Amino acid sequence: MASKRKGKIISLILLVALAMICFYIYKNYFTGSIQLKDKNYTFIYIEHNDTFEDVINDINKEGIIENLESFKLMAKTMDLDKAIHPGKYRITNGMTMRQIINLIKYNKQEKIKLSFNSQIHNLDEFLEYMNHKLALSEDEVEGVLSDDSFLESEFNLDPDNAFAAITPGVYEVSWALTVEEFKTFLADNFKKVWNDNRKALLKKLKYNCGQVITLASIVQGESNIASEQQKIAGVYLNRLKKDMLLQADPTLKYANKAYNAQRVLNADKDIDSPYNTYRYKGLPPAPISLVSVTAIDAVLNYTKHNFIFFCAKPSLNGYSDFSETYTQHDKYAKAYQKEMDKRGIKR
């Protein structure tokens, strides 16, 4: 009888212990154990050389784990120390410790969105933009874009016009992108644009890739309408063939850092800059902004004509009046200037 009672007590103790274990597992594995203060989510950033201890410390710094030792034990039990993936991870309110561990273990990182567009005008602006986006340092990004052998082999460019190696677009990449991955990223996107068809058109044009991208950046600065871009490209190519000054207003805006100016002034033409195409013949040393594929195609498929002048229409609708003689161009220019004055556009 005593032995039966003793057995029941032991069974009861085991049952209670099992219940406690089950409760612990339920609480930590299946229920929301993370309670963030005053926000719905936070981020942790894991770098390439981070150890298991570094990850634990990073999580602890965020103050999101109540029982750090339990988390550490669980992480080791789930082999997190053998599967640490660098990147940016979003920790949301209500997550369990198990979910956080799996987030890192199975590399469910949040990608970084990169938007490269014509609002980035030069390499310095690009470096500044990238500096706030990725783990890569500004020096590392600059190092890639000043690597002679890399630029020559992948883009047929040199450090002076390395800006042409950057292909506009919206991309999603890992926050922990490495230098080598960044090189591959640039090269792969460039190759997508410069396919066999565009390379064949480039060969016919008898300009190199960097020159076409530079001209395309000027054309893009003149109009966003594809058909107009082709006609404008034709004008500039005609001027280059005749050894004339390009006299491209977008290059003056660039040289004077008046990127958003609606009007170019005579005083702008006085600046001594290799980008002042009113003073120096030929193309500028590098693009004046990141260049869309549409603008590149406009240059490669330029409209053949005899025009050597063009001026924006007074309606300011994105279209231009084209002419073969300065006399005709002067009439168009005066009509345009008159309308700008009428609208009170001084800059």
Question: How would you sum up this structure, described in words?
Answer:
The chain has 347 residues and is mostly helical. It has helices at 2-30, 52-61, 68-77, 97-105, 123-131, 138-144, 148-155, 179-193, 196-205, 209-222, 226-241, 249-255, 293-300, 326-342, and strands at 41-46, 87-92, 112-116, 169-173, 309-312, 320-323. It has three domains: 30-110, 2-Layer Sandwich (Dna Ligase, domain 1), CATH 3.30.1490; 112-193, no CATH class; 206-287 and 294-342, no CATH class. The model is unreliable at 28-32 (pLDDT under 50).
What key phrases describe this protein's structure?
347 residues; mainly alpha; Dna Ligase, domain 1; two-stranded antiparallel sheet; 49% helix
Record the SSE blueprint:
Elements: H1 2-30, E1 41-46, H2 52-61, H3 68-77, E2 87-92, H4 97-105, E3 112-116, H5 123-131, H6 138-144, H7 148-155, E4 169-173, H8 179-193, H9 196-205, H10 209-222, H11 226-241, H12 249-255, H13 293-300, E5 309-312, E6 320-323, H14 326-342
Antiparallel strand pairs: 1-2, 3-4, 5-6
Helix pairs in contact: 10-11, 10-13, 11-13
Helical content band? 40-55%
How much of the sequence lies in strands comes to: 5-15%
Number of strands: 6
Backbone shape:
elongated
* N-C termini distance: 103 Å
Strand order of the largest sheet: 1-2
Helix count, DSSP H or I runs of 4 or more residues: 14
The poorly predicted ranges are 28-32
SSE order: HEHHEHEHHHEHHHHHHEEH
Q: How would you characterize the largest beta sheet?
A: 2 strands, antiparallel
Our Rg estimate from Cα atoms comes to 31 Å
How does the helix and strand content classify structurally?
mainly alpha
Overall pLDDT: 89
The structural domain count equals 3
